[in-house]
């Protein structure tokens, strides 16, 4: 594995810069629970966007639903009309792509967006589905036995930790 865990705050600044070229005038930010929801909360403010960002959960459409069940992160809240919207999805980690597949199903339950893009903090490879990010603040390789987890401190600062994948 990469022995150095990336500095999440530095990656966040790269993400902030990287999403700007993806934005159209009316683009709606939507964060994937839970790490993407933290990111999007801060991006919405730092990009000077009005109102609240969208939050979306993969829970209702997961292909491992029977194992994971519903969690506290089940709520999806999209404070805009999805029909015709340009949507920019945000997540902390992109791995197999299964969360993104489930989130797209969830999004399309609400309407037919004009476009959907994806930006992530970390692309760790390991894709099992044909999913790609339009922007990743970094890419790295981790063994399947490890997980990269985003944490948010009380002061809002982000950090990344490597955990065992049980
Ligand atoms: O590409 P994938 O293999 O689907 O993995 C990536 C997803 O896994 C993590 O979420 P998780 O479902 O663990 O929920 P959490 O963010 O609430 O921990 C992460 O935040 C991504 O959403
Ligand atoms: O490394 C990983 C893989 C999937 N989900 C995570 O949150 N981290």
Automatic annotation (TrEMBL):
Q: In the record, what terms sit under GO molecular function?
A: uracil phosphoribosyltransferase activity
Q: What is its EC number?
A: 2.4.2.9
Q: Which domain of life is it from?
A: Bacteria
Query: Which residues are listed as membrane-spanning?
Result: none
Annotated CDD domains: PRTases_typeI
Q: Which Pfam families does this chain map to?
A: Pribosyltran
Q: Which terms are listed as keywords in the entry?
A: Glycosyltransferase, Transferase
InterPro entries xref list: PRTase-like, PRTase_dom, PyrR_bifunctional
Q: Where is the Phosphoribosyltransferase domain?
A: 26-134
NCBIfam families per UniProt: PRK05205.1-1
In Swiss-Prot or TrEMBL terms, this protein is called Pyrimidine operon attenuation protein/uracil phosphoribosyltransferase
The record lists the organism as: Variovorax guangxiensis
In the record, what lineage is assigned to the organism producing the protein?
Bacteria, Pseudomonadati, Pseudomonadota, Betaproteobacteria, Burkholderiales
């Amino acid at each position: 594995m990469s022995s150095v865990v990336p500095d999440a705050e530095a990656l966040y600044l790269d993400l902030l810069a990287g999403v700007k070229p993806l934005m159209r005038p009316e683009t709606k930010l939507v964060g994937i629970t839970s790490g993407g929801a933290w990111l999007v909360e801060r991006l919405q403010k730092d990009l000077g966007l009005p109102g609240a960002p969208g939050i979306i959960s993969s829970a209702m459409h997961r292909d491992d639903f029977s194992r994971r069940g519903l969690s506290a992160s089940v709520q999806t809240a999209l404070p805009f009309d999805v029909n015709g919207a340009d949507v920019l999805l945000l997540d902390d980690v992109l791995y197999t792509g299964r969360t993104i597949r489930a989130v797209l199903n969830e999004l399309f339950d609400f309407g037919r967006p004009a476009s959907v893009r994806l930006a992530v903090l970390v692309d760790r490879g390991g894709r099992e589905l044909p999913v790609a990010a339009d922007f990743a603040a970094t890419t790295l390789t981790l063994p399947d036995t490890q997980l990269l987890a985003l944490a948010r401190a009380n002061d809002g600062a982000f950090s990344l930790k490597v955990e065992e994948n049980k």
